[in-house]
Structure formats: C-alpha cells, structure tokens
Design brief:
By secondary structure, the protein is of the alpha/beta class. It has eight helices and six strands, in the order αβαβαβαβαβαβαα. It is globular and about 50 Å long.
Amino acid sequence: IVSSISIYQTIYFSKDAEYFSERLTHPKIFSSPFGVLNRDIPSEPVKSFKPKKIIFSGNENHYPNVDALEWYLKSIHSKLADENRVKLHITGNWSDQTKEHMRKLNEFIVFEGFVEDYNEFLKESIVIVPIRIGGGGLRTKILYALANGIPVVTTSVGEFGIEATHGVHLYKADNETEFANSINGLINNENAVGQMAAKGRE
C-alpha cells in the first residue's frame, strides 16, 4: 500500500476523483500524489510486537476529530478487555475544556500535544482513525502508520480513497463492537500484528 520510494502512488486518490467526477458538474478534477518521504519509512524490517498504546492523531479545530474521539471514548474504549486497556495517546491541539470533557468520558487517556518525532512515537502502537462524519482529509495519519509498519483500525469514512483490503492491510469497522474487537484481536495476537504491519507497509 505504501510505496518504498518517495512518492506515494496516485492510485490513493483515484477513488476520490471518481466519486467527485460522478457527483459534481465541475469540469476539472485532478488526482495529485501524496509523498511519504524515504526518511519517514524506517529501513528496518517489520516485526511482530504486542501493542503498548493506542494513538489518535488530530486537532480539535476539525470537528470530525472531536466527534470521532468522543465516539471512541464513549462507546469503544470501555469495550476493550481489561487486560487490553492500554492508554489512548492523543496528539494535536486540544483546549483545556475539551480535555476535561474527554477525561470525564474515559480517564485512561493521555493528551500528548505536539510530538517532535512522530515516527518514533508510533512504535509499538495501534493507530485508530474512528472518523464518522465529514471527510477523512488526506488520511496522512493512516499512510504514515502503514509506512511505519503500524496496524490501523479505522472506519469506511477514514479508509475511503485508500486501496486497502480489510483484514489484510488494516481493519475497517463501522460499529463500536467491531471496532473494539479489532483492537482486542491485535493486542492479543502478535502474529496478526506482524502480518498486517508487513502487508500495510508493502
């Protein structure tokens, strides 16, 4: 899914271009490649590992991120098995008021703010993208996770436009039970983590 060279293939945007071409009358729609730089793709081989944290990346000023985080904390994180209740680490800018609100939903979270070395931060984690409304944007958080050999659990909205196969390159779940089961399965199965990480990176 992620190219080993500097430029991510334009196929990433082909589904978006088709979608808008069929629904809009604007005559010119272009697909532009998105680059994942070589320096952001670790050279070491992907290994199996037991995830030690869950990562959510996004800023509060994009409302779909707020909705996604609230949904996850209200409906999904509590469904993880007790032995799998690793902390959720949240990057990006969030107001103190929103942090307080989110901690009331589930206190097992850490607001990280700006992360200096995101690739290092991704190690031994699961990246979640529980976007339900609006657009998924460029989905760079998914691309960087795949490039780093990190398993991803997302929704149909989050995955839209990425030519990935559910259960092979990432997990796609649109309800709370499936989302929680996907995370539980990854935490409990290091081999599944390694296989998915390798396929996603490939």
